[in-house]
Here is the input.
Amino acid sequence: MPALGELIGTVAEDASLSSPLGIGLVAVAAVAVVGRQHVRPLAKNALKTYLSVSQRTQVWAAEAVEQWHDLYAEAQHKYVQERDEAAAAAPPDQRPRPQRRAEPVPS
Here is the structure.
């Protein structure tokens, strides 16, 4: 049977701070080192910080997506506008014919 130190070393190697196991180990270590009475306010502050950062990240991501959609719409509008101007400036025999929609195949 492995010694307690070996077991703790193996678990600590497998757990990163971003994994649930790593977070649990940090919480257990905090309780052991600081004491139960002081851990509750620390945990509450950590959760408040997490919620604040999470909310800011969501707002930032939403703004980034909105800016990307705006940029895409502007580029698409510019592309269609330039394509239409080029087609209008071309002589009639070189203008592209309008695309016909595919008709459903009768079954």
